[in-house]
Amino acid sequence: MARPINRLSARAIQTLTKQGYHADGGGLYLLVKPTGSKSWVLRFRRDGRLREMGLGSTQVVSLQEARAAALEHRKHLAGGQDPIDARRAARSAGSTFGQAAEAYIDAHRAGWKNNAQADQWAQSLRDYGPPESLSIAQVDTSLVMACLRPIWSTKTETATRVRGRIERVLDWAKVHGLRDGDNPARWRGHLENLLPKPSKVKPKRHHAAMPFVDVPAFMARLPERDAKSRRALRFTILTAARTEEVTGSTWAEFDLEAMLWTVPASRMKGGREHVVPLTPAAAAILAGLPRSAPPFALSENAMLYLLQKPAPKGFGLPFTVHGFRSSFRDWAAEQTDFPRDVAEMALAHAIRDKTEAAYRRGALIEKRRALMRAWALFCSGLERQ
Questions:
Q1: What sequence ranges are listed for the domain Tyr recombinase (predicted)?
Q2: Phi/psi at 318 (nearest 5 deg)?
Q3: What's the start-to-end Cα distance of the chain, in Å?
Q4: How far apart are CA 18 and CA 187, in angstroms?
C-alpha cells in the first residue's frame, strides 16, 4: 500500500514543536531541531544507504516550495541519479541565467513533444529573456519587467510565453539552491499588478484562414519547388492536422499498409490519442521521404514563414497554417453531407453529446476515411482521388 503524501499543513508547520522528523510523505520531512529552528529535509535510499538532503529553512522555503523541490529531486532518483550529486552539478553549471535555462531545458527535453519545443524555449529566452551572462541570483522584478515591457503590447503572445519560461527557470534555480525568495516572474499576485492582462492588451483572434474555395489553386502551386516546408504544408492541409502534430511526427506513428497515422496522446493538444486516415495523396508524400530522419523535422514556424513571407521565399499570404483546419471545417459544412461529428472528430475536437460513443467505434474510421478522401479530391481539383 502506497504511503500517503502531503500529510503536513501550513498550520502544523507553524505549531509543531516536538523535536525530530515529521513526515509529509514522499521522503519529505520537517525537521525540528533542539534549538526550535525548523527546516526541510529529503530522505532517500541510494545503493542501499539512507541519505539525507537539506532543502532549506522554513523561514525561506514554504511548504509548497519544499514539496516542489522534493518532487524534482525524486525525479532525479527515479532516473538513476543521486539528487545530491545532481544539485551539486546544477550549482556548478547553473550560476548564470543562461546556464540555468540550458540546464532546465536539458532536464525537461525528454518530456516535451519534440525537439522543436526545446529550440523554441532556447530561442525565445535568448531573444527576450534576461542576459545569459547575468547571475541567476540577480534576476529581480525590475529586470523581468525590462524584458517584458517592450514586447507586452506589440508581441503579447510571445511576451506571455517568455514570462512563463523565465518563471519556470527561476523556480528550477530555487529548487537547486541557486537563488532565494519569491519568483519575480510570477504572474498571480505579482506581475498582474504591474502589467495589463494579455487579453486586455490584445484580444484573442482566430487564426486567419484561407477561404476553402481558394485551397485547390494554392495546393496546385505548392509542388512548384521540392522543399521540406512545402511537402510538410501539403501533408498538413490534406490531414487537417495541427502544425506541431506534423513537425513532431515519427515514422513509428505511420502504418502505410493500413493507411493510418496514429498520433500518441502525449503529442495531442487534448491529451487523447488521435488516428488519422491517410489518403493516397498524403501517403504519397510520405513515400517520397527518406527514412533516415523524422518525416517533417521542421521548426515551429517554417510552414508559417512559407505562407506569409514575400516571394521568392514565400507566398506572401495573410493566412496561418492552423487556419487550414478552419478551411477544412467550412468546406465540410458547406460542401458535403458528412455529419458534423465526423468532421469534428477529424479535427480531434472533443464531442460531448451522446453520439460520441457510437462514433468512436470502428465505423468512425471508415466514415472519416471517406471524408478525408473527399477533401483530398477537392484539394486536388481532380475528379478522382
A1: 201-372
A2: -90, 30
A3: 58
A4: 37
- H/E stretch holding 333: helix 323-335
The mean pLDDT of 32-43, rounded to a whole number, is 91
CATH class of 94-201: mainly alpha
Instruction: Please give the residue that has the higher pLDDT: either 168 or 223.
Output: 168
**Is a pLDDT exceeding 80 seen at residue 329?**
yes
Give the span between the Cα atoms of 333 and 315, in whole angstroms. Answer: 27
Residue type, 26: G
The HSE-up count of residue 203 (CA atoms within 13 Å, CB side) is 1
Which of 373, 320, 374, 328 is CA-nearest to residue 348? 328
- Could you give the CA distance from residue 236 to residue 230 in angstroms, rounded to a whole number? 10
Residues 69 and 76: beta-carbon distance below 8 Å = no
pLDDT at 322: 93
Domain 10-92 in CATH: superfamily? Answer: Integrase, DNA-binding domain (3.30.160.390)
Whose cell is 494554392? That residue is: 218
pLDDT tens digit sequence for 245-304: 999 999 999 999 999 999 998 888 777 889 999 999 999 999 999 999 999 988 878 999
Which H or E run includes 122?
helix 115-128
Question: Where does the chain hold its CATH 1.10.443 domain(s)?
Answer: 212-380
The three cell numbers locating residue 258: 493500413
To 10 degrees, what angle do helices 83-93 and 97-108 make? 140
Residue type, 298: L
Q: Are 54 and 40 in contact (CB under 8 A)?
A: yes
Within the chain, all domains assigned CATH 1.10.150.130 are found at: 94-201
* Strand order, beta sheet including 274-277: 254-255, 260-263, 274-277
Residues near 177 by beta carbon (within 8 Å), at least 6 away in sequence: 56, 87, 90, 91
CATH classification code of 212-380: 1.10.443
Taking residues 350-370, report their average pLDDT: 63
